[in-house]
């Protein structure tokens, strides 16, 4: 698998765009004796080396699930309302009632339609505000990131591809991670995937044996692997890639990947390297866009 650094927009219909910066030669590429050609469809990630990843301009880890912003709320909100056949029908009736030949007072049609649209827009605004608040909570959740041989708590939104992170028991994975080491024997950890597939039974993940020792911040700071893998996609159960580490190319499988949205169970903590962030994570690509229907429990507004 070739080693090109390519930036991909990992949203639901996010087009990919190549970086205009030239490739940076990593220590692993030097070991191989040549600069590897960059190939479309693959990405190269330099673990624990932000400077090497900087030219690629990977997407950040901040997420936004809102449907509107200040400028798009009214036009987009009205567009959503008039996608409904009933609203279009009553709009036509209201327009016809304003003609001189109409025997009906236009107020009897315009006022009800206006009220329906107003209530619907208020509902949309409230729901989008709740989404914004939820995004703020998630983006500002703290996670331990390796900095200068120490674990430093930083918000999820500041994570970058290639960062080394520590996730503690019962914590959620802040991004899609390459599993490096665990406090459990034999480099295994247990995860719960209820947020992905609804299953509550624990699943086992196992790190590559060559990375088991990189558990402490001092050892993790020495890890300088190069990950060559697939581009972001919505397949939750597949992963193809290689880890180039200590002059060896080690194949990776879904068994070494910890997906955002899963939580760590029965394990004191694990250490991992960030592979996909934010809207490029498999969970975010897999999820559908926010629905136009009301998601607040107990509400049933069929306007």
From TrEMBL:
This is P-type phospholipid transporter. It comes from Salix viminalis. Residues 13-24 have a biased composition (Low complexity). One of its GO terms (molecular function) is ATPase-coupled intramembrane lipid transporter activity. Residues 45-109 form the P-type ATPase N-terminal domain. Pfam families: E1-E2_ATPase, PhoLip_ATPase_N. It is found in: Endomembrane system. InterPro entries: ATPase_P-typ_TM_dom_sf, ATPase_P-typ_transduc_dom_A_sf, ATPase_P-type_domA, P-type_ATPase_N. One of its GO terms (cellular component) is plasma membrane.
